[in-house]
Amino acid sequence: MEEDEVKRVFKAYLDGIRARYLLGRGAGPDFEFEDGSVAEAKGSEWDDVGAVLRQIAEYYLKRTAVTFVAPADSLNLDRAFRLSMLERMLKGMKYGGRAVGVFLVDRAAGNKYKVLTLDSFEDLWEAD
User: Fold this and answer.
1) What is the pTM of this model?
2) H or E stretch including 38?
3) In order of start, what are the domains of the chain with their CATH numbers?
């Protein structure tokens, strides 16, 4: 799934819940919210896991909260574990640190999508 498709699905979700946001332009987060939080979207093909981890860490330390938006098929065990460990480390570094939100997208039949929203990467291990 391409990153632009993932962004469209997340944007439709945000519009459906009437969230107020700005679309990112160029370098920086893909979505910015009134409360100072951000969301970063990725497509299925993100080979440089280290770059994604650095990006999430940078946003986490500078913003009030971060949500990671990606296709469900992009998370293998290695990526999910590394993102979960990063979240755990970041929460310990920032006083009152919040978990990294997770928004996973998957194509369903027709032109529909399934989404899974989690409050934390740690919830991946408990998701049905």
Assistant:
1) 0.91
2) strand 38-41
3) 3-107 (3.40.50)
